[in-house]
Amino acid sequence: MSKNSNDVYVVCINGSPRNYGGTYKLLRIAMEAAKREGAKVKLYNLYELDIKPCIGCLCDIQNACRYPCVIEDDMKEIYEEILKADGLILATPIYWYSPSGPMKNFIDRLTAFENMIFITGRSWVEGKVCGLIAVGNDSGMIMVLSNLMIILNSMGFIVPPFAIAYFAEMGDVLQKDSTVFDAYNVGRNVVLAARIIKKQKALWYLYDEVKDVVKKLRKQVAEEAKRNANRVRDERFKAITKLLKESKGQ
Question: Is residue 138 domain-shared with residue 225, that is, in the same domain?
Fold first, then answer.
């Protein structure tokens, strides 16, 4: 166990209706690995909570979507824990190439943190680390994991190396060595990455700080692209003209 006991806090989200199935089992493996690395962990089973769907406030007024969310439900407690956390591990069953409904609602509701970039200048989950687990009976794991990685990265989460685990077969997930080891490393690597990132204290997405720089770069790149386009057009025109002349001479 790490000497830095409990210096990292990881919130674990079970998106399965079963606290005995494959999704839960792999999540528990990841949790135990995180604890062995010295992290504090907390588990939420979404099917035991009242997590209402997002109502898309930002579609009416951009700044209306913010923390605290206007919806009153159990997400209020999870929001507070995520703000305290350094890492997040999401585990979901695969339902028709997608995460479970409650997991999708949970992810949509994280927009209240991400949209703070338009209100306070940064996403409130920026720089937090995330690991992912997906379990199904036959297929769809790559689609689920790819979708989740894109969404979470767009919110500001960091997915470190070897922080995904999946199983898409019939049978007991604990009987497949490679998957169990993958799950263990999800928990371990979320903690390792969170510990490294906490020391950096970096601001990952810049906006106000680089407005003048971006303005100059826009002009610079536009002029460069125009020069390149003119050069390519001239070269192609000369090549076509040459071909036409050669074809007439034959």
Answer: no
